[in-house]
Amino acid sequence: MNYRSTRNNNISVTSAKAIAQGLSEEGGLFVPESIPKLTKDDILALCDKSYPQRAFEIFRRYLTDFTDEEINYCVNGAYSSKNFDSENISEISHLLTGTYILELWHGPTCAFKDMALQILPYLLTCSAKKVIDGKDIAILVATSGDTGKAALEGFKDVEGTSITVFYPEDGVSDMQKRQMTTQEGGNVNVCAVKGNFDDCQNGVKAIFTDERLKSELDKMGITFSSANSINWGRLSPQIVYYISVYASLIESGEIGYGEKINIVVPTGNFGNILAAYYAKEMGLPVNKLICASNSNNVLTDFINTGIYDRNRHFYTTISPSMDILISSNLERLLYHLTGGNDKQIAEWFGKLAKDGKYEVTDDVRSKVKDIFYAGYCDDDATKSAIRQAFDEYSYLMDTHTGVAYKVYCDYKAATGDNTKTVIASTANPYKFGKAVYEAVGGNTDGMDEFAIIEKLEEHTSTQMPAPLAATKTKAVRFTNSVGKEGMSQVVLDFLKTR
Ligand SMILES: *Cc1c(COP(=O)(O)O)cnc(C)c1O
Q1: Residue 50 region, left (φ>0) first, then alpha (ψ -120 to 50), else beta?
Q2: Which of 20, 72, 224, 306 has the maximum number of C-beta atoms within 10 A of its C-beta?
Q3: What average pLDDT does range 282-301 have in this prediction?
Q4: Pocket test for ligand 1, best of 115, 146, 229, 398 (most atoms within 8 A of CB)
């Protein structure tokens, strides 16, 4: 199976090329030419399989230019109890009958980004061997918090790669900063940027297209690549857990085969919920995909009206990984819903770049409304929802999961729909300890991150996960901070000393 660019159907590449390249040269995203289907027997056969075996079954349908040995090497390397604190890789918690929390944060950095970023280095190095023979890969990441740390953990000490992460000096939480600046590994580099996330992202984009830098790298036998969520190598691993949770629910007798479920996803860049859409298109019995946003509710409006308009106030919220006004992966959904109309996609996304706004056709709008339900909530409502779930079910959730839970409660109240429902839980609550402690009634005035966490542990009889606890005593290795104009020199200096 080949991959096409959403903005030019004449561009068709292998999965290895799509993963190694990340983005198509004219700015489109790579999508599979057709979506492979799973039969009833295919899904039932997954039931008694392990997570890596289930992942193998999904990947071999998408990565048809990889050998079985290569895919097995990737899934077994990534999804082992060496990297995850659970044999099952993800865990299902029961809130009440028919409402399940799918915990996707049992990896090394305690956020769901690990589900994809643990395997991406394997997929990328395998792909590079096929298409950019022998070159070393320099990964560049601009992060607002979770992606940077998950990418560092994924790529640390991976042969043939190095990674540089840029984060906004004052734009990440204390815990996120500690997680990154204490990162171990011989091939990693972390640098603060005096600016906001957009400055970091624009700086990284400028480095990617800097011809002088590129020719210097050519001489060193190095090529740049990206680990951000537009890469097919990051999206495809996320399809696996939606299919896997369905198999697990059949296995444990919670559902019967064919029974439809709702899936609720706290959404920012539209990557995680798009993976659920692919799972549905592959044949997973899904009723509604529920898209949950915080006050940056550009997707709620889009799903309800067919108008995407990023010209609005940007809110800084307690669910920062969803503070985003351009949801890149929506482009892939619209490509599929227009029947692969590359001209139409190029036009809409051209408008988005120029005016910050586009409107889809009535046909596409009604398809979107059939598949998705959308809602949003603000910080106060998120905190109340966290508190209510804790009081009623003794379940402590993070702020992003809190948004999803609240939007689901609203959905249920509005529709009366009693379909069994899986809520994607995207981070461990201790990653956002301050807001979570306040949500369950604590007072954080004048307290530092670790003091708050101790209080949260006491108050909720839960425990901070080991990888976060470890950052307390780890030495800070990276203190470098530059203006955005200094970013390319940071990359060059780092690569030269390697
Ligand atoms: C990245 C992230 C999200 C948003 O996921 P998208 O794929 O960008 O929609 C939600 N929650 C957490 C904790 C995240 O790190």
Answers
A1: beta
A2: 20
A3: 98
A4: 146
Ligand 1 centre from 272 Cα, in Å? 7
Instruction: Decide: 148 in ligand 1 pocket, CB within 6 A.
Output: no
Distance 115 CA to ligand 1 centre (A): 12
How far is residue 100's CA from residue 300's CA, in Å, rounded to a whole number?
Answer: 23
Amino acid, res. 198: D
**Structural contact between residues 390 and 440, judged by C-beta atoms closer than 8 angstroms:** yes
Whole-number Å distance between alpha carbons of 419 and 308: 29
Return mean pLDDT, the chain. Answer: 94
CA–CA separation, 498 vs 189, rounded Å? Answer: 11
334-to-117, 232, 308, 331, 360 alpha-carbon distances in Å: 25, 16, 12, 5, 9
- Do 312 and 376 contact (CB within 8 A), yes or no? no
**Can you tell me the distance from the alpha carbon of 9 to that of 211, in angstroms, rounded to the nearest whole number?**
27
Nearest in space to 109 (alpha carbons), one of 479, 404, 468 = 468
Q: Can you read off the two tokens belonging to residue 105?
A: 């944060």
**Distance from chain centroid for Cα 481:** 26
Nearest to 438 by CA among 371, 490, 379: 379
Whether 269 lines ligand 1, by a CB cut-off of 6 Å, is yes
Residue 497: band (very low, low, confident or very high) from pLDDT cuts 50, 70, 90: confident
Establish whether 113 is a catalytic residue. Answer: yes
Q: H/E element holding 163?
A: strand 161-168
Q: How confident is the model at residue 248 (pLDDT cuts 50, 70, 90)?
A: very high
Q: Say which amino acid occupies 217.
A: L
> Could you identify the atom of ligand 1 that is nearest to the CA of residue 146?
15
List of domains in the chain: 91-111+233-431 (3.40.50.1100)
325 — pLDDT class (breaks 50, 70, 90): confident
pTM above 0.90, yes or no: yes
